[in-house]
Design brief:
By secondary structure, the protein is α/β, with parallel strands linked by helices. It has helices at 2-28, 46-62, 77-84, 98-106, 143-152, 167-179, 191-200, 210-219, 266-281, 283-291, 301-322; strands at residues 35-39, 66-70, 92-96, 119-135, 158-161, 184-187, 205-209, 222-227, 253-261, 295-296. It comes from Belnapia arida.
């Protein structure tokens, strides 16, 4: 029996060494074919913009095509799930935003993957502080006016978001909890249809990134109410923050985080992370990102993992306090 156990252990050890050697060989020759970045949303939104921003320069850096694939559906679960189920070989990545972190709580026990454990964090690529916009026909111009309007009409002012669990949705829920106002949530499948209804007046207000709302601010169709940021962004110095407007510590952003399937070779994760950091931190790229309403980050894999876990915890508390459900 002892001989059998010894042989079995040697066999298992040999298999483990062979597996590591195989992964090392794959990493050494990486990449040798096209890479895909899955965006779990429709084209044109914040996530899509971020993915396409890095795709072309990443392709040049790695010497292989980097293709952006839009896989929308089920509050980003379809696209993220496709990557979680992909081989961990460095040829499939996902760009996720706040909804991915919120899904850990909203869909607890119902997801086909774990939003943290099923992935290898690669890079927190960029952040975009959220800004609140209001239909220009509404009779208020600042946060105080909006709160007074909403408090006088509980349950009548409606707001849109790109979907249940999106950072824009949960930020508005947090605002309601902290100020005592009551509004009606109208979720959409992406930012574009929500923005159209904001312009037409079918919804009154919504949070989103500055890049999504900038054209409407400039046209006058939508009025900026304030940024959920610690300080006024350099690209929009005339729009006040919620903190300035009397709401202490009200800070929230959407973000774009690059993930690979769990067990992707460490060498590949670190290489892609380093290339992404070079791309977004390049001075010209950083300036372009500011023009789109983003702050460049380009974090390490460890920093990205810490950030993601923190966002899961943060939104879990908001979801519980506001009693948010997926129904």
């Amino acid at each position: 029996m002892s001989g059998f156990v010894s042989v079995t252990r040697r066999t298992a050890l040999g298999a483990g060494v062979a597996l590591l050697a195989s992964r090392g060989a794959r990493a050494a020759g990486y990449p040798d074919r096209p890479i895909r970045i899955v965006v779990p949303y429709t084209p044109g939104g914040t996530t899509d913009v971020a993915a396409r921003f890095v795709a072309e320069p990443l392709s040049k850096a790695l010497g292989q095509p980097v293709v952006v694939e839009n896989r929308p559906g089920a509050n980003s679960i379809v696209g993220a799930g496709a990557v979680a189920a992909s081989p961990p070989d460095g040829y499939s990545f996902a760009v996720v935003i706040g909804a991915h972190a919120a899904n850990a709580t909203l869909y607890k026990g119902k997801l086909p993957f774990d939003p943290v454990a099923s992935f290898a964090p690669v890079s927190l690529m960029m952040l975009a502080p959220l800004v609140l916009g209001a239909n220009a026909r509404l009779p208020f111009t600042d946060l105080a006016g909006m709160l007074a309007f909403a408090k006088a009409r509980p349950g009548t002012l409606n707001y849109g978001s790109s979907g249940i669990g999106a950072a824009a949705h949960l930020t508005m829920e947090d605002l309601q909890v902290r100020t005592g106002i009551q509004m009606v949530h109208v979720p959409y499948r992406g930012t574009a249809p929500a923005l159209q209804d904001l312009i037409s007046g079918n919804i009154g207000v919504m949070f989103d990134s500055f890049s999504s709302l900038r054209a409407q601010f400039e046209s006058g169709a939508v009025r900026p109410i304030g940024f959920a940021s610690a300080t006024r962004p350099a690209w929009a110095p005339n729009i006040p923050t919620f903190i300035e407007s009397g709401l202490p510590d009200f800070v929230s952003s959407t973000w774009c985080l690059l993930l690979a399937p769990a067990s992707t070779p460490r060498e590949i994760v670190e290489r892609v992370s380093a290339e992404v950091a070079k791309i977004v931190r390049d001075p010209a790229a950083t300036e372009r990102l500011r023009g789109l309403g983003f702050d460049a980050v380009g974090s390490s894999p460890e920093e990205a993992g810490t950030f993601l876990r923190g966002e899961v915890d943060r939104w879990a508390k908001v979801i519980a306090a506001a009693n948010v459900t997926i129904e």
